[in-house]
Design a protein that fits this description.
Shape: elongated
Strand content: 5-15%
Helix content: 40-55%
CATH topology of the largest domain: 434 Repressor (Amino-terminal Domain)
Distance between the termini: 26 Å
Largest sheet: 4 strands, antiparallel
Radius of gyration: 21 Å
Amino acid sequence: MLPTHEILKIEEYWMEGIQNGIYQSLKQYMKEKRCDEVQLAEQLKWPLEQLNEALRGDFKGSLEELVRLAIKINRVPKIDFMRIDHYQHQLEHGFDLVTSKQAAMILRISPDLLEILTKNKHLKSYSLDNLTYYKQSELNAAVIPIKYR
């Protein structure tokens, strides 16, 4: 089996995740509206064949069509770009990495404390309520525990 950092560089891994997200969103919407594929295609004014492709995990539309579809089914087409090593850390530890400035904004950390955290070369980590601040090579990151469902 490939190590995680190699898997995260495979295009098909990401395409499968996106296709699965489209499928799950469509199925959930159909459940909410109590409709079948034919009724959904009519509601969306979308060809039944294309809808069935999306429900088989084979959406072939453009990014613009994906956004349009998401909005029609009352979903947010959120795409997030992050460094592979940050994503791997998140997978392995169940944490979201944010920059120290983002953490300061989120947690309303005073500028003085933020300066202490970012400039202290001997400080390896610092805990403040639900924030743990880690200094890592070039990355000054706040690690905020997130509970995933």
